[in-house]
Amino acid sequence: MITLHIEHKVSNYDGWKQVFDSNPINRKKSGVRSYRIFRPVDDPNYVLIDLEFDNLNDSETVLTALNKLWSNVDGKIIFNPQARILNVEETKKY
User: Fold this and answer.
1) Is the whole model's pTM more than 0.90, yes or no?
2) Given a cut of 90, is residue 88 above it in pLDDT?
3) CATH number for the domain that contains residue 81
């Protein structure tokens, strides 16, 4: 499984979440299988998002779309977005 891990500051979480929920890149059609949103307990205006994919190609395509989207909103809704494509090597549940 491939994970696209994203991190960035937001000016207002509720406003950012509305934009995220509007799904501007059509996550499902783009190959996103699931997502998780995290917020540090000591910084509610910082978000970390994991988008899960079945294959590398879909994650790269989404990252390209996100970079284009971010160029329009960086410094307004989000600040300094960073992303990495990760290969899940192992998962174990207890």
Assistant:
1) yes
2) no
3) 3.30.70.100
Would 48 be classed as within a structural domain? Answer: yes
What span, in angstroms and rounded, lies between the C-alpha atoms of 16 and 10? Answer: 7
Q: Is residue 19 part of a domain?
A: yes
How many domains does the structure of the chain reveal?
Answer: 1
Alpha helices in the chain (DSSP H): 13-21, 56-73
State pLDDT tens for residues 22-59: 999 999 999 999 999 999 999 999 999 999 999 999 99
Whether 49 maps to a domain, the answer reads yes
Hey, which residues does 50 pair with through a beta bridge?
Answer: 5, 36
How much is the pLDDT for 84?
A: 98
